[in-house]
Amino acid sequence: MKAIDRSVVFLCGAATVLILVMLAVILGNITFHGVERLSAEFLTQPPRQGMTAGGIFPAIYGTVLLVLLMSIAAVPFGVIVAIYFAEYAKRESRFYRWTRMAVNNLAGVPSIVFGLFGLGFFVHGIGKALDQGIYDGRLMLGQPSILWAAMTMAVLTLPVVIITVEETMRAVPREYREASLALGATRLQTILRVVLPQSWSGVMTGAILAVSRGAGEVARVLFTGAAYFLPRLPTRANDQFMQLGYHIWVLATQSPDVEATKPILYSTVLVLLALTFLLNVTAMVIRKRMRTWAAR
Amino acid sequence: MGGPVKIDVSNVNFYYGSQRALHDVSMKVREHYVTALIGPSGCGKSTFLRSLNRMNDLIPGARLEGRVNLDGEDIYASSMDVIQLRRRVGMIFQRSNPFPMSIYENAAYGVRVNGLTRDRLKLDEIVERTLRAAALWDEVKDRLSKSAMGLSGGQQQRLCIARALAVQPEVLLMDEPASALDPISTAKIEELIYDLKRNYTIVIVTHNMQQAARVSDESGFFLSGRLVEFSETKRLFTAPTNRETEDYITGRFG
Asked: Across chain A, what does the average pLDDT equal?
């Protein structure tokens, strides 16, 4: 028995080490090759000479802007749905179970399908309809743009936001709700003043997960707004944009001179990893601050 | 004897789904009295208490039959505004549950949600008055903006009392308010109850029979969802008319 016990421990340990080694190899390799091209110029300049020189600033800018727009759309909407699920919907009702299941399944839809959906629904559906209605048929919103890309991203990150916020709202002790109601507060006041402030860590977690999933995503922006190359930064909602993930794909497969692009490719991957990591850490710090305030 | 009837409960039956928690309970709670509810766990005394401000409405499947009148008005009538009712009938819970906000914001919460005043000076005044009424002012006056979570258990419970007082209720319902506190904090709460009854009508659920004897004017003994005996506290504890009451208060119960 003891021998079996020991071999199980060994097996689990070995599996863990293997994962860590793989991660270390990936990170080590990318850092090793990526660092040499990294410079202030690389981070602040647009690509030049068919992407074999210059930097990747437009892609960084586009990625951050995209994630920001996505959060602005996904977080408030997700919080509202979560409030409905956690506070108003009857848990036993069929409607609750079905909508909840639908939200869960939304998270499982392959992202390439989402990309196509975004193109069909947002760009050709809503965008074209708005062009007909508001702009007399001129092509304004009925084309791939940062707005529709952000919306497409938001739809996919919504389930994550909804589920994490709902869970934290449910975790707020019943005593607080009762205390508030017993003071003559309405249900809405109780939610807004007592339950939601205690759920900020959940809102932040939802936002973190959404952002870190969104920052590296390619398939969903492929059809809905990402550009191969744009020397200009997006300034309007219907502008196209460059994005790090897409730029990596472009550098890796569409370059006229693969050997010349390679160092740039490595550095771009490193920047994307660092950016995602940085966004995560920032959100985690905010979350921790909020928690310590609540516990103080 | 006694003041006018504040809460008149008549023939109340209470159900959690198909389970019956109260059997034909009738009781008159007198104004400016402390009315104690005693009995073993699960006897229905908390259910009864929570039916006086319709806190049981929150439990799915809960249902009440009979009448509960506050100043002659049926609180279960469809015309009754539950928000208004809960403002008039405040509640203190077993586990002290101040909100994770500052001490000041806790005390001001009820005033804010009820929109009683927008004037900052007036709010300051209400906060001070209620903290004084809850015998907490001197201990917290220098740290009103600090989180209430840093207070001791007894202080937290007194803050909850202050929070309830701030909306100027007529009745205070207390659900074992001192059961989680040490003897010194308990004594402070009991003193406070004694002071408060001048201005409020108090109904208190307690497991502690000495406490019921010390603080209350009238007492009711609950057993298995029935109000077995209800009378003047002195009489209930010295000369109970019911055999079950006597067994319980002399510790021969069960």
From this structure: 86
Q: Please name the member of B91, B99, B114 whose beta carbon is closest to the beta carbon of A182.
A: B91
Q: Name, in order, each residue with C-beta under 8 angstroms of B167's C-beta and a sequence gap of 6 or more.
A: A183, A184, B87, B90, B110, B111, B114, B116
For A163, A200, B130, the CA distances from A75, given in Å and listed in that order, are 12, 11, 39
Of B55, B101, B167, the CB nearest to A184: B167
Domains delineated in chain A: 56-242 (1.10.3720.10)
Q: For residue A62, list its beta bridge partners.
A: none
Q: How confident is the model at residue B254 (pLDDT cuts 50, 70, 90)?
A: very low
Chain B residues whose C-beta is within 8 A of a chain A C-beta are 53, 55, 58, 60, 83-84, 86-87, 90-91, 93, 95, 97, 99-101, 109-110, 112-114, 146-147, 149-150, 160, 163-164, 167
Report ipTM (2 d.p.). 0.88
Residue B95 contacts by C-beta under 8 Å, 6 or more apart in sequence?
A175, B180
Work out whether the CA dihedral A126, A157, A70, A171 comes out positive or negative: positive
CA–CA dist B24, B3 (Å, integer):
24
Beta bridge partners of A226: A241
User: Cα separation of B88 and B54, whole Å?
Assistant: 12
Angle between helices A146-171 and A200-215 (to 10 degrees): 150
Are the C-beta atoms of residues B215 and B204 closer than 8 Å to each other?
A: yes
Total Cβ atoms within 10 A of residue B85 = 18
Q: Whole-angstrom Cα distance, residue B192 to residue B199?
A: 12
Strand-strand pairing, B62-70 and B73-74: antiparallel
Q: SS3 for A274? A: helix
Where does residue B159 rank: exposed (0-12), middle (13-18), buried (19+ CB within 10 A)? buried
Q: How far, in Å, CA of A155 to CA of A148, rounded?
A: 11
Distance between CA atoms of residues B10 and B31, nearest Å:
17
The reported pTM is: 0.79
